[in-house]
């Protein structure tokens, strides 16, 4: 499939921020084939998009999500993490069927695509249905099969191997399967060691929650004599690629470990604010050369999956909390929310608008009162833009939304199916 986008402005921000006005962008299969002031003569497009008044940028990678939790949106609001999980969420999750997982995932994916997300890093149970929904939606996904308990039983291992076999690497690597032990406080030491062995056997990445609350940090010190980060490090986790959600309660040694071992720190500012878990020291992780990405967490602790909001909040809270307006600059936030997602997928040529890069990109409608006048495009995107400004979404060279209309998800049918299963 060849797509031609005419007269579009593009933003590139790998290093310096660069804007190119009114160019032609050609997409062939999953990649950006050319960016040019003139159309390539031998490029016979199958489909054309008018890019006038639109800005093309890389799509968002929502780096920590629990897709089916849209069906639990607003459950247990105004409680702490442990109260929320054990008294409100876990009891309801026990009753979730495969249908809840599939349609709940699809609902979240619809919301995500509408707000410009092109890649996700998820973890949930009954993950085969999450994988199916992600595959069907066309999004790029790293999908964690979530597990927890005292003993990693044979049936759990079988489930993981089966899902991995069925989905890992399909559609040219668009879908990847990870192993997701929930957290140190819901998994025994033996369970975590066995999960690590399984990840090594499958050559899979690991996605888990680390150091989210002070309660978890204190529990770790009391039970194991070390911080949660050090605990995972001593188990050998960081020899593999680990995607660590939250990373809020960290000491200086933890920050050095996370940065040295190239752990991908998944920052979830809204969830951390709503559950009052604390403020992750991302400016220190960033300054010490660590990898920081941004995620919404599940939409029951947020309560939406809009990455524009997440960027805005990331920038504001760290400035405010540290009383330093120079911290976490708009350019850094934009990279954390988009480009840094490439580390999750292990794909070097993604996260910028360049020839030869993955065609995971979005068009923003810049002709909006709240984006006028446009003196500083990066600040405009981080501080002023809204999810509803997203006009078109392309992933792996396939159009998932055009002019605000979803192409891979039938919303009316989806609402109908959801009404059936929740009634
Ligand atoms: C077993 S699937 C994932 C599991 O995680 C739960 N969850 C959602 N948000 C959080 C969070 O912020 N910290 C810890 N656990 C969380 C979710 O409800 C699922 O049970
Ligand atoms: Zn989470």
TrEMBL record:
Binding positions for substrate per the UniProt entry: 93, 182, 212, 297
SUPFAM superfamilies: Composite domain of metallo-dependent hydrolases, Metallo-dependent hydrolases
Reaction(s) catalysed by this chain's protein: S-methyl-5'-thioadenosine + H2O + H(+) = S-methyl-5'-thioinosine + NH4(+); S-adenosyl-L-homocysteine + H2O + H(+) = S-inosyl-L-homocysteine + NH4(+)
Keyword Hydrolase in record: yes
Catalytic EC class: hydrolase
Enzyme Commission code: 3.5.4.28, 3.5.4.31
Cofactor(s) in the UniProt record: Zn(2+)
One MF term in the entry's GO annotations: 5'-methylthioadenosine deaminase activity
UniProt keyword Zinc, yes or no: yes
Origin superkingdom: Bacteria
Every Amidohydrolase-related domain range: 56-400
Cofactor comment text: Binds 1 zinc ion per subunit.
Assigned keywords, A-Z: Hydrolase, Metal-binding, Zinc
CDD domains the record matches: ATZ_TRZ_like (cd01298)
Task performed by this protein: Catalyzes the deamination of 5-methylthioadenosine and S-adenosyl-L-homocysteine into 5-methylthioinosine and S-inosyl-L-homocysteine, respectively. Is also able to deaminate adenosine.
Similarity-based family: Belongs to the metallo-dependent hydrolases superfamily. MTA/SAH deaminase family.
Name of this protein: 5-methylthioadenosine/S-adenosylhomocysteine deaminase
Source organism of the structure: Alkalithermobacter paradoxus
């Amino acid at each position: 499939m060849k797509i031609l986008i005419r007269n579009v402005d593009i933003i590139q921000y790998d290093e310096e921020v660069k804007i190119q006005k009114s160019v032609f962008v050609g997409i062939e299969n999953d990649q950006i084939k050319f960016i040019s002031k003139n159309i390539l003569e031998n490029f016979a497009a199958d489909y054309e998009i008018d890019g006038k008044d639109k800005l093309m940028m890389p799509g968002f990678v929502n780096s920590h999500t629990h897709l089916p939790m849209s069906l639990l949106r607003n459950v247990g609001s105004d409680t702490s993490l442990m109260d929320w999980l054990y008294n409100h969420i876990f009891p309801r999750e026990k009753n979730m069927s495969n249908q809840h997982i599939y349609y709940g995932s699809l609902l979240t994916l619809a919301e995500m695509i509408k707000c410009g997300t092109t890649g996700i890093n998820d973890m949930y149970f009954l993950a085969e249905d999450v994988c199916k929904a992600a595959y069907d939606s066309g999004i790029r996904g790293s999908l964690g099969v979530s597990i927890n308990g005292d003993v990693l039983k044979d049936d759990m291992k079988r489930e993981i191997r089966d899902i991995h076999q069925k989905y890992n690497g399909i559609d040219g690597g668009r879908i990847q399967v990870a192993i997701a032990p929930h957290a140190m406080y819901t998994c025994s030491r033996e369970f975590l060691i066995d999960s690590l062995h399984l990840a090594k056997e499958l050559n899979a990445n690991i996605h888990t929650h680390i150091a989210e609350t002070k309660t978890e940090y204190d529990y770790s010190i009391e039970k194991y004599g070390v911080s949660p980060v050090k605990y995972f490090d001593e188990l050998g986790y960081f020899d593999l690629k680990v995607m660590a959600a939250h990373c809020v309660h960290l000491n200086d040694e933890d920050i050095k470990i996370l940065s040295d071992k190239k752990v991908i720190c998944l920052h979830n500012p809204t969830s951390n604010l709503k559950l009052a878990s604390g403020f992750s020291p991302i400016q220190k992780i960033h300054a010490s050369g660590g990898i920081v990405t941004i995620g919404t967490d599940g939409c029951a602790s947020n309560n939406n999956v809009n990455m524009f909001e997440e960027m805005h909040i990331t920038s504001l809270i760290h400035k405010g909390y540290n009383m330093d307006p120079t911290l976490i600059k708009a350019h850094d936030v934009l990279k954390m929310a988009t480009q840094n997602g490439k580390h999750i997928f292990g794909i070097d040529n993604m996260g910028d608008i360049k020839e030869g890069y993955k065609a995971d990109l979005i068009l923003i409608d810049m002709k909006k009162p709240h984006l006028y006048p446009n003196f500083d495009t990066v600040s405009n995107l981080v501080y002023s833009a809204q999810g509803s400004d997203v006009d078109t979404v392309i992933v792996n060279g396939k159009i998932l939304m055009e002019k605000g209309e979803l192409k891979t998800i039938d919303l009316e049918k989806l609402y109908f199916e959801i009404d059936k299963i929740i009634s």
